[in-house]
Amino acid sequence: MRRIISIILLLSLQVMLLLPVPVRSDDLINLSVRANNTEPGVGDILQVSVVADNFPGIVSFGPMKIHFDASLAEYVSVELGDDISSFVYNVTKDETYVNISAIDQYYQETGNDEAEPYEAQSAFNTDTSMVLCTISFRIRQDASGQIPFWIEDPGDFISSNGSSVSTSVDNSISVTISNKVSSDASLVDLRLSDAEISPAFSNDVTEYTATVERSVTDVAVTATPSNLWAGVIINGNNNLQIGDNMLTIIVTAQDKKTQNEYHIRLTRKESYVPENAVLADSVGNSFTFLDIPKDFDVPEGFVQKIRTVNDFAVPAFVKEGFASVILYLYDGENPPGLYLYNEELKTVIPYSKDLVYMQKSNVLIKAVIPDGVDIPKDFKEEVKSIDGIEYSGYRDAEDRFVCYMADEAGNANFYSYDEIDKIFIRYIPVDRTAQKAYSALLTVFMIITALEALFLIVIVIIVHRVLSHRKNPKPRRV
């Protein structure tokens, strides 16, 4: 009896091994396509969404081939579903297909092959229906009949543990092109050039808000109608006033009767300084940008403009041909004030008319002579007034004035003041040893030359007397 039971169990096990193993629903993704309009008109935007019935921790999918008829519809754009906003996608297209691949960027940045495999729940996971992507098509002007759409190849769906997840695809859909005059007065896209609208755009939402910096006086508005022949009129986007402005986008449908209005309450800030605008210098000190008061005295030749500093558009005083700009900053401790900023050196120096000398193309700052630095020889202490500012320095017998100063990089030295060009030039002491030796040699040479001349004169006199005596000899006495 036992032998019979063993034979029956063995046969049952063999039969079970031969039978196919049923696929669990968690390991299968059913894909389908859906259209937002079953009877679009000529010129309309038709949106076709790819829907998955679940998403078990997928970190990449594709390339997915979605078929369409390019003779009837023109590809416009693609957007991923809101649930997978961390994904980035790549789109290629030809006359018949739109090919979409997507990968979870966050997962790729945090995971790596050497680390422990991520569990499925570390990536986005849902067992409910969701939109993978939405493709927008424009119905062509001469289109008619029906347009079919289907997923020809779903591509590979890879989960976070590296395994491939099985997929199935539902039948295609077909939409009928309507020949009726369109009454669609909606938008499929609404954007501003210098601001984000809130809430996020939706064609059934007509009221929005946005904020721009004070430096912005005009904004470009992108308003794409759902129907190609709908008219769009934009008002209020130029000559923006400080405070509240109202932008109105009027959409008139192809039937010339149906209208829809979208409104954007746009606020232009009172401050010229963007929120959280900060600046760090080369040694890590942090400064906060502030609006420049109207009554501040700035150096001659500097004018106020909006400059991009540390990726922020901020007010600054600039001068043509001058590397540094003047900013109004707060260091967190001292009262706010003007600072010189050199973008190349990343230096931030407090500006004071009494301490800083602004030359034609560079900056010099009064400095204290440190211990161990000798005052130039033969110079005596003196105070000189330059452009109404007192400079403590030294003057020599040749009327040269020098003072101790530093450049923006912190390199300090003595500088001499050029009275003609009105600039400071780095002072380089002249070594007069060679000059003195040359003067001594020249003196000796002059003395020797003078002695030689005197000797020649004596010789000439003697020769002259001898010759005179020969020509006119004196008579001898007898």
Question: How are the secondary structure elements laid out?
Answer:
Elements: H1 2-18, E1 28-35, E2 45-52, E3 55-56, E4 58-67, E5 73-80, E6 87-93, E7 97-104, H2 105-110, E8 125-126, E9 130-139, E10 146-153, E11 156-159, E12 164-169, E13 173-176, E14 187-192, E15 207-212, E16 221-225, E17 231-235, E18 243-252, E19 259-268, E20 278-280, E21 286-289, E22 303-309, E23 312-318, E24 325-330, E25 337-342, E26 347-350, E27 356-358, E28 363-366, E29 380-386, E30 389-395, E31 401-406, E32 412-418, E33 423-426, H3 433-471
Parallel strand pairs: 1-12, 15-19
Antiparallel strand pairs: 1-2, 2-9, 3-8, 4-7, 4-10, 4-11, 5-9, 6-7, 10-13, 11-12, 14-16, 17-18, 18-19, 20-21, 21-24, 22-23, 24-25, 25-26, 27-28, 28-31, 29-30, 30-31, 31-32, 32-33
